[in-house]
Amino acid sequence: MRFLMMVGVEPGAEAEGESGLTIEQWLAETERRGVRVEGDILARPSDATTIRDYGRMITDGPFADTKEWIAGYDVLDCRDLDEAIEIAALHPMARAGLIEVRPFWEE
């Protein structure tokens, strides 16, 4: 199953998880398990553009006005949700920020 893992941060959060893994170690673990398809870091919310109403309304900034923001993403290919949660829980930002894991739509 494929999952989108969104990595959220709060301003000033430290990227060190209870697992003790650094981001480099987390990447190595996902490579060892063969579950990370791709991923990247996103620009700050101030660089976002939000499009609504079929392009009739275009505004600078993120979709939601919250203190947390999505800093990056990873696409995981895991056996099931339990494995995706296990991988996400090892990410350093699982303690200092938030991780959302969502399956891709399947018909």
Automatic annotation (TrEMBL):
Stored InterPro entries: Dimeric_a/b-barrel, YCII
Span of domain YCII-related: 44-106
Organism whose genome encodes this protein: Virgisporangium ochraceum
Protein name as catalogued: Transcription initiation protein
Family the entry assigns: Belongs to the YciI family.
A Pfam family the protein falls into: YCII
Gene3D superfamilies membership: Dimeric alpha+beta barrel
Domain of life: Bacteria
